[in-house]
Design brief:
heterodimer; A: 550 residues; alpha+beta; seven-stranded mixed sheet; four-stranded antiparallel sheet; 16 helices; 25 strands; 30% helix; B: 341 residues; mainly alpha; MetI-like fold; globular
Chain lengths: 550, 341
């Protein structure tokens, strides 16, 4: 094609884009909010972020990949449910429950008539089989199974009568009631626990949910079928009976722009990204008549965790404090995710129960950062960076993905003389790097509607990456963190719990253990034909009320 | 394209017609040509030069019938081809920008300006700005620095190893030739991008590993071409004569075989610069390139791909720039190739 031809094509494309943009900008696609009568039937197509490459799993207890927790939420029910608005725990499979005065015994009274999709009864014995199975997995994996942090201190469970089950702890665990509402403690059939952990990961289990798992092809397609005869939905859904949809297909799409394109062109109904949809794509979806749904994911915010072990620059508290002052979180949120995006205010996202904002300590203050660095002995030198004993103030951040947003933080830190080195490696090399301590900052996040979620990152006993947890703080600080977690967990008094978590959140910033990066907001682009969209308390997708305009 | 077949007007060239650069080169070469061995006809054995063989007299390179006359004629005919001139000028600009990007921009390629995020192209920002408000034109130029250098390293590796292997193989013949060529065969059977990916994964990420990977990947073509040329040249009568006259193989190699077989290799080199740039851009697109915030051309294209619909310039302008560079190189290579015939 000649040069003129290329120019002409480019012009035509631009013009076409401009025209479509003007053509459909009249309404904000509010169709989803109208209270039309739900229509039964249809296939809902959802596009996810790619499947977990290291650990493809759909087993409730072991899965931490948030997309798959959405799948599990619709396949398996839990003992309780959590209200997304208030954080209150509501009945579901359990009609009611009692907690003993010492906080060590939880007695659940189950709803009658609930069956798994293979026809077996969901009774006290089945629930006990689940807790026994979970304990087995924890033992098998040496405590690294993801669900381990949900049943800390669990001693045993016992069948009181066919519809009453008692869960007994060796030490009080005040976050257990919330844990019982999560996908991770969703109840699956006793037969499922006869399979190996690996078989369950590949979807060989049976739940009691409004959908059944038809097939799971890792990183390709997950298909759910409507469960006929379902009548025990949680009261938090409008529709407690059979699902409106016949079938749900979850596909995995790596490129954000492709996912958005699929939604706009009508190839999918819901686009479910991992990182927030860009401002530009949000506009595009709205212009196509779609709706943007969003909710902060409760739990640990996206944050950097330092390597504060001896010999690393971040072992100096002053440098860590300078790091807080050198990062402009407000500008970061605005530039990366748009004007109305919430600014992270501490180790947790703001939808986490017991959230206590630390925003005042995280304010941008480059002069303060420079002052702290001067005090710590880092003097300005070549290239605008700071040096001490001839060594440049370099913070190594190994990462597997080229994220343009980190380059903004890199540039912000350069202004106070800190070099943030974005060290790109293949994803498979990262765990070894962390293990060898060959990093200064590592980023992580984690979703659970309870502050206890952070134990999965920071408590060396339960952490996914032991190295990251051990290096994040000096041993005495780690001990303090563990003590505060224990204090919050082992009390039955909400006021004490609240205080302990508030102290914890303050400590994490004062001691420089967590460097928040951004609030994690779960976005979803929803086609105008989809109605009844709802987030669970953990910002997963709940399909009970969803129906599709035929 | 106009395939202008200009007749060889070797006898009519006046020295004044040559460009200053060609004249300087001619003078230097004339001094080097003092060796008696160069009396043999050289450089593509042009029909006009063939007659010189009748005389034992040395011919100065700039004299009618000399080696540089053909080149000057070539330069003159090429200078009136606008496409070629444009391509050369553009490549010259890119190469200069690769070594001194500061000449064409006063901005810092790494300093962010969130307020100017995603500005569309304007006089202030020729290529617009990216999602952090960085000037894309500036980033493009600083990207040349990395990409062109990587391409030159890759080409250097490919030419040095390729020439060495090709000459060794062509001259030695027999088992050694067969062995080398079978190795090259195997390497040719593996897609270049795949081979480069494997090498860069083993070496680690960065501009130099990418350059090495691409260099090794495109090397077999050079070895093949060189070998073919060496096989052709080594049977020519003047080479045999030179051997018969007692010149050693290394001497014959350096004075006769290499200079006479490098023409097609030079064309291939220009053509493969474009190929190397494409591979380097592909590898950096996939995230194997320089560490951020540095950005090679491929990285720039990749960074903008999420905004292809909403802010197309972020990805398309760097993409068009790369396309223009490769197109220019192909055009230059093709034009030279036509002249060679």
């Amino acid at each position: 094609m000649s040069r003129r031809g290329i120019a002409a094509t480019a012009l035509a494309v631009t013009a076409a884009l401009g025209l479509t943009a003007c053509g459909s900008s009249d309404d904000e696609g509010g169709a989803n909010t109208t209270a039309a009568e739900p229509v039964a039937g249809g296939t809902l197509k959802v596009a996810f972020f790619p499947d977990n490459p290291q650990f493809t799993c759909l087993d409730p207890f072991q899965t931490y990949w948030i997309e798959h927790r959405t799948v599990i939420r619709n396949v398996a029910d839990s003992l309780t449910d959590q209200d997304p608005k208030t954080g209150e725990i509501k009945p579901w499979l359990a009609k009611s429950w009692e907690v003993s005065a010492d906080g060590k015994e939880y007695t659940f009274h189950l709803r009658d008539g609930v069956t798994f999709s293979d026809g077996t009864k969901l009774d006290a014995a089945a629930v006990k089989a689940n807790f026994d199975g979970a304990q087995g997995v924890v033992k098998e994996t040496g405590g690294t199974a993801y669900g381990a942090s949900y049943i800390l201190g669990l001693d045993h469970s016992e069948v009181v009568d066919p519809l009453t089950v008692k869960v007994v702890f060796s030490a009080p665990n005040s976050s257990f009631l919330q844990a019982s509402s999560t996908t991770n403690l969703a109840i699956i059939s006793p037969d499922s626990y006869k399979k190996t952990a690996k078989e369950r990961c590949l979807g060989q289990y049976v739940g009691s949910g409004a959908f059944t798992l038809e097939s799971y092809k890792p990183n390709e397609l997950t298909v759910l079928q409507k469960r006929p005869g379902y009548t025990w939905g949680s009261a938090l859904s409008k529709n407690t009976g059979e699902a409106h949809l016949d079938r749900v297909e979850f596909s995995y799409v790596a490129e954000d722009s492709v996912r958005t394109g699929n939604l706009v062109s009508g190839a999918i109904d819901i686009s479910w990204p991992r990182s927030p949809i860009t401002v530009e794509d949000r506009e595009l979806i709205k212009k196509s008549g779609g709706v943007i749904e969003s909710r902060s994911l409760p739990g640990v915010a996206s944050a950097y965790y330092p390597n504060a072990s001896a010999g690393h620059v971040l072992s100096d508290l002053k440098v860590r404090q300078a790091l807080y002052k050198g990062i402009d979180l407000a500008t970061y949120a605005k530039t990366s995710f748009g004007d109305d995006y919430p600014v992270v205010g501490g180790a947790f996202d703001n939808t986490t129960p017991f959230y206590a904002s630390q925003a005042s300590k995280l304010a941008y203050d480059p002069d303060g950062a420079i002052k702290l660095l001067e005090e710590a002995g880092w003097k300005p030198g070549e290239g605008g960076y700071r040096y001490k004993d001839g060594k440049r103030l370099t913070i190594v951040f190994p990462t597997s993905s080229l994220s343009v947003s980190s380059e903004l933080i890199q540039d912000q830190l350069k202004k106070v003389g800190i070099e943030l080195k974005l060290d790109v490696h293949p994803p498979a090399e990262l765990p070894a790097l962390y293990k060898n301590g060959a990093y200064d900052l590592a980023s992580s996040y984690f979703t659970r509607a309870d502050p206890g979620a952070l134990q999965f990152l920071l408590d060396p006993k339960y952490a996914n990456s032991k190295a990251l947890a051990t290096n994040a703080a000096a041993p005495e600080t780690t001990a303090k963190i563990q003590a505060l977690f224990a204090k919050a967990r082992e009390t039955t008094d909400d006021a004490v719990r609240k205080q302990a978590y508030a102290d914890l959140q303050a400590l994490l910033i004062d001691e420089g253990v967590v460097f928040p990066q951004y609030e994690r907001v779960q976005f979803a682009g929803v086609s105008k034909d989809v109605h009844g969209f709802a987030f669970t308390s953990e910002s997963f997708l709940k399909l009970n009320d969803v129906w599709k305009q035929q | 394209m106009t395939t202008s077949v200009v007749p060889e007007t070797t006898g009519t060239e006046a020295p004044a017609a040559a460009s200053a650069a060609a004249a300087a080169a001619a003078a230097a070469a004339a001094a080097a040509a003092a060796a008696p061995a160069t009396a043999a006809p050289v450089a593509g054995a042009k029909p006009g030069a063939g007659g010189a063989l009748l005389s034992e007299r040395l011919i100065a390179d700039s004299e009618p019938g000399g080696r540089w006359v053909g080149l000057r004629a070539t330069a003159r005919t090429l200078a009136v081809k606008p496409g070629f001139v444009l391509a050369v000028l553009f490549i010259a600009f890119v190469v200069v920008s690769a070594f001194a990007p500061g000449l064409f921009t006063s901005r810092d390629p790494y300093s962010t300006a969130p307020a100017e995020r995603m500005d569309s192209p304007s006089l202030n920002h020729l290529f617009g700005t990216d999602e952090l408000g960085r000037d894309l034109w500036t980033r493009m130029l600083y990207g040349s620095q990395l990409t062109i250098k990587a391409a030159l390293i890759a080409l250097g590796i490919a030419i040095v190893i390729g020439l060495a292997l090709g000459v060794l193989s062509g001259l030695s013949g027999g088992f050694f030739d067969a062995l080398l060529m079978r190795i090259v065969d195997v390497q040719l059977a593996i897609p270049v991008l795949l081979l480069s990916l494997a090498i860069v994964t083993a070496l680690g990420f960065g501009t130099v590993p990418v350059a090495i990977a691409v260099g090794v990947g495109i090397m077999p073509a050079f070895a093949r071409t060189t070998r073919a040329e060496v096989l052709r040249v080594k049977t020519l009568p003047f080479v045999e004569a030179s051997r018969a006259g007692g010149a050693s193989w290394p001497r014959v190699l350096l004075t006769h075989v290499l200079p006479n077989s490098c023409g097609p290799v030079a064309v291939l080199a220009v053509l493969d610069t474009g190929v190397a740039i494409l591979y380097i851009a592909s590898l950096s697109f996939l995230g194997f390139g320089a560490a951020p915030p540095q950005a090679e051309w491929g990285t720039l294209i990749s960074a903008g791909r999420n905004y292809l619909v909403t802010a197309p310039w972020v990805s398309l302008l760097p993409g068009l720039f790369v396309a223009a560079v490769v197109l220019s190189l192909n055009h230059i290579s093709k034009t030279i190739q036509e002249r060679e015939r």
